[in-house]
Each structure stands twice: as C-alpha cells, then as structure tokens.
Write a structure and sequence with these properties.
mainly alpha, 6 helices
Length: about 130
C-alpha cells in the first residue's frame, strides 16, 4: 500500500492554516452578508448569521487539525482520501472566490487568500498524485 510522504503531511497542515487565514479574511469582510451560499449555510447553523459563520469555520479548522493529527500525520491508509477531499474543496473555494471577484469587478471577502489556497492545493496534488491507486 502506498503511503503519503512527510511533505504531503506538512502541506496538508499548511493548507488547514491557510484555510484558517482565509476564514479570518471572510469574517472581517462579513461574508455571511455578501454571499448568498454563505448566508444560507450560516443560517442553517444559527439564526445569528455571524455566529453561524464562526461555528462553521471554527468547526472546519478543528476538523482539519483532527484530520492531520489522527490520520494524515500518522500516514493512515485514509490519508490520501482525506487529503484529496480537502484538495477538491480548496480548489473549488479558491477558484470560486476569484471568479466571484471578477464578476463583481471588485474585492470580495476571501479573494486575497484564495490564491494561496489554490497554490497549496496544487502543491498537494503534486505531492500525492503518485500515491493514488493505479
């Protein structure tokens, strides 16, 4: 069975922290007031959209750290699956923010950190592509 290398584990942890910085940027820009999908998701969690945003994004961070601590860092057989789930989410997240800003022709919350999510996700693809099942 192919296992991930330390580089992939480090990149995954870095991705979790970039996502945390991304969430902070979104928080300061009050994403829940500006982006209908965020409004919807935050409203599912709390009637107070700001609280819903905080719960959702703190949860994402905690899940990311738990995935790294208990699965990726230990190079569990599930590592590659967890990493690729995050890669897909962050590629969508990064591209989505860039497209949204282009459509708005202005700054949108999260667009500054979005390229860092994309770059790190691409580095993770490079670090894990040889580990995918043949």
């Amino acid at each position: 069975m192919k296992t991930i290398e330390k580089r992939a584990s480090d990149l995954f942890l870095f991705l979790v922290f970039i996502q945390a910085m991304h969430s902070i940027e979104e928080y300061t820009g009050k994403l829940w007031n500006n982006f209908p999908p965020a409004t919807f998701l935050c409203g599912l969690i709390s009637n107070d959209l700001e609280t819903g945003f905080l719960i959702l994004n703190i949860g994402i961070f905690v899940i990311g750290i738990a995935c790294w601590s208990f699965i990726v860092r230990k190079r569990s057989p599930l590592s590659i699956n967890i990493i690729w789930i995050w890669i897909i989410i962050e590629l969508i997240n990064g591209v989505g923010h860039l497209v949204w800003s282009l459509m708005q022709q202005s700054y949108t919350p999260g667009v500054i950190t979005a390229p860092f999510l994309l770059i790190n996700a691409l580095l993770l693809i490079n670090a894990t592509i040889s580990k995918l099942p043949s």
